[in-house]
Amino acid sequence: MCAPLDIVTQLYEPWAQGGRPVQVKNHFPTDTLEHYMLYRYHAQKSFSEEGVLGWNFYKNGGTPDYANTMATSWDWTMVLHRVLPFWTAWHFGLMGQLLCALLGMYVFLRSFQYRPALCLMGTFAFSLSSHFAIWFYHRWALGGFSWAPWYLWALFRTRQGSKWGLLFPFLLALALLGGHLQYAVFHVLVVACVGLSWMGTDYRQTGKVSWGLLGNLSLQGLLAIALAALMFVPCALAYVNTLDYGLVRGGLGYPDGRLSPLLNLLAYPSFAFPFLMGSPHTFDAYKLFKSDIQATAFFGTLPVILAFVGLFVKRLHPTAKLLTAAGLLLPLTPLLGPLYQRLLVIFILGGTWLAVDFLDQADEVALHRLRRTLFWVFGIGTLLLLGLGLLITGLEHQLLARLLARIQPQIATHRFGACPAWFTERVAQFVSDEIPWRPHLLLPWLLFGVSVYGLRYLYKPTGGWSCAVAVMLQLVCYDQQWVVFFRPFGPDMDLYPATVETKAIVAAVGASDRVLVVQKRGRLPLFPLNSLCYFGVPNIVGYDSILPNGIQKHVPYLPYIGETLPSAQFLGERGVTHLITFADDQLPGVSWSLVRTAGKINIYSNALARSWYSATVAADAVALPLQPLLHQQNHRRLHLPPNTRKVAVCENWDEGWKFRTEGGPWRNMQLEQDRSMSAELSPRAAAINFEMMFDPTPRKIGMGISLLGLLAYVVYALWARRVPWVATGVHARS
Q1: What's the half-sphere exposure (Cβ side, CA atoms, 13 Å) at 274?
Q2: Which of 158, 298, 365, 728 has the fewest Cβ atoms within 10 Å of its own Cβ atom?
Q3: What are the residues whose beta carbons fall under 8 Å from the beta carbon of 612, sequence distance 6 or more?
Q4: Are 104 and 150 spatial neighbours (Cβ–Cβ below 8 Å)?
Q5: pLDDT, tens only, 109-134
Q6: What is the pLDDT of residues 550-574, one digit of tens each?
Q7: Cis peptide leading into 14, omega within 30 of 0?
Q8: Alpha-carbon distance 732 to 246, whole Å?
């Protein structure tokens, strides 16, 4: 199974076994288990039960999951979750995205008539790059940028006047739908680099600015955005709601201080051989440069070196050079704040292309000079690595002591600070891995030497294949550190296995109850955020980048007992009926009643909890609790007592929620002061049926714009087949 499930069994309570050494291959993709796999699991469940993905009441007091940009709900792989079992859809989706990147990059590079072996090297360099391996499970990196070579291929066909260029808006739309809003900006930057490069080439050749070219490119870009409006409209509005909530992540600037761009720049040379900078199961040496190991931009030592050098070679493709330069420079600007160092994916895209162009354009004299220089680099690097190994062997204990002293203060506040021995083992492994004759370093370094030696045969009939294979194997050596295959595996295997504790929670907490998990600081995470959603247990909080501005606003998403835990009354007003704690944690307050102890946990009930559904009768101001007849994500049904004048729903309001009585017309639910929702009714003498439906307007608007965009795209394509529609007149290499 291609999923980091060892995190669950090793670092999350109640699944972790205390006292046992922690053995996690890659602990970084915790978001995969708390976000991305749960997004898809919820989508699959919604498709199965209701046929549509919309609302999710399991977290944050209710949230429009369809509009969560991080969930990539509009990616083509989501269709698989409609027709296949979860794990089959998950794996086929991963393989499909990787295959899309592989085929796309090969087709794109071959369109420039590069030699097949070099195209294969570039294909491996791009598709197996560190960026895709590190963010493999998150789905938005590969989901969005696997289409980048395809839309670049179509875009360059427009430059040549080919009708295949008509596919550009469609392919760009697929790329936009496959990622999130941040990656949409990356795609805009890629297309902007292409346009600027073309305009620069035209101006140098004709002395004029190609306004027609700019207009045509802008028109096609707008068509792509219109086609992807079904994602943009709801996701943009949900992001605005997140800002209203108060969650502002990544403003313009440098989150790690003004020196961070300089330190980040100093770390760039390590991209050629990042094996020295640590691994996910050891230590992150990039922290010394105010960076992060997840920002590594590695696509093979030989291609990375050629990309850096190629920036200063005049004859190489100007668009490839501009993409490479933009990918390196933009992360050093204040755009680092909102866009993060993920901007380096543009460097990977451009650098891969530039490396292939470099080798293809090199004549035998230039190639001989390059090979000789790289042999010197390999030889000197080998001597330096040997020296480093001897130094570390002699000073291993001193280095280990200094590193441990440096990180020791940070362990206590770390999320997994309850496992100090695990941190010590990782640091010790890092020091050990820096010895170059260990396989971890020796094999990829020798593969770099093989790729350099392969340049000797580049002009032979079989030339270049050894370079391609060596680059591929070197990337496999790096990627295998990040990609986890969990065993044993079965098609019905649970993402979070059922335990005594989860069974007790499901039995104690009703479908229309709501829980909050609390613990004391310094312990392993108890039921990490969103994990109980898997078992159908509603939570008042959740861990997300996109949050509703609702009833959960002032509830800490990681409350600690005795520090940030709100009162029972405060939580009760927000519908929190139960608290879950470790069994040995003492819960303050008299309003919490222990209802069950199971395994490692206690379950408490809240006597002050407000009912999820309640009715106010005309003659009485007291709200009567109601039990729903139907309690689905997007559909609800209640039976109201006679003379009901108001129905209150302790759940986040959203403009998409509508209600009706006795099959009448649909009306909008009203927003209450506490951000919950209600419905005002005209009292009737008899009991009545009350229905609720989630039918969001942003989804309708987005769908409508996408349909109009599709119509405009068809009209544009028909017109373009009859009328010259691109500014040509320059050579294809522009």
Answers
A1: 29
A2: 365
A3: 512, 513, 514, 575, 628, 649, 650, 651
A4: yes
A5: 999 999 999 999 999 999 999 999 99
A6: 999 999 988 898 888 999 999 999 9
A7: yes
A8: 49
The DSSP secondary structure of 345-385, one letter per residue, reads: HHHHHHHHHHHHHHHHH--HHHHHHHHHHHHHHHHHHHHHH
Q: Starting from the edge strand earliest in sequence, which strands make up the sheet with 578-582, in order? A: 515-517, 578-582, 601-606, 592-598
pLDDT band at 246 (very low <50, low <70, confident <90, very high): confident
Mean local confidence (pLDDT), 351-361 = 97
Q: How far is Cα 686 from Cα 130, in angstroms, rounded to an integer?
A: 66
Residues 500 and 41: their CA atoms lie apart, in Å, by: 22
d(CA 529, CA 517): 8
Confirm if 615 and 641 have CB atoms less than 8 A apart: yes
Residue pair 87/1 in contact by the 8 Å Cβ criterion: yes
Tokens encoding 89: 């859809």
- For 199-221, how does the pLDDT look when each residue is reduced to its tens digit (9 = 90+)? 999 888 888 888 888 888 999 99
Nearest-angstrom CA–CA distance, 169 and 582:
53
Q: What are phi and psi of 683, to 5 degrees?
A: -55, 140
- In order of their start, the domains of the chain are 101-279+297-362+696-734 (no CATH), 505-606 (no CATH), 613-695 (2.60.40)
List the beta bridge partners of residue 694. Answer: 657
Cα–Cα distance, 374 to 452 (Å, whole number): 7
CA 407, distance to chain mean position in Å, is: 28
C-beta of residue 178 within 8 angstroms of C-beta of residue 147: yes
Burial of 32 (0-12, 13-18, 19+ CB in 10 A): buried
CB atoms within 10 A of CB 380: 10
pLDDT at 724: 57
* DSSP structure class, residue 725: -
Residue that the structure tokens 């469940």 belong to = 45
Q: Report the DSSP pairing between strands 578-582 and 515-517.
A: parallel
Alpha-carbon distances of 155 from 104, 192, 193, 581, rounded to whole Å: 13, 12, 12, 56
Amino acid at 342: R
Which helix (DSSP H) or strand (DSSP E) does residue 522 occupy? none
pLDDT in tens, 596-645: 999 999 999 999 999 999 999 977 778 899 999 999 999 999 999 999 99
Specify the pLDDT at position 130: 97
Q: Which amino acid makes up residue 105? A: M
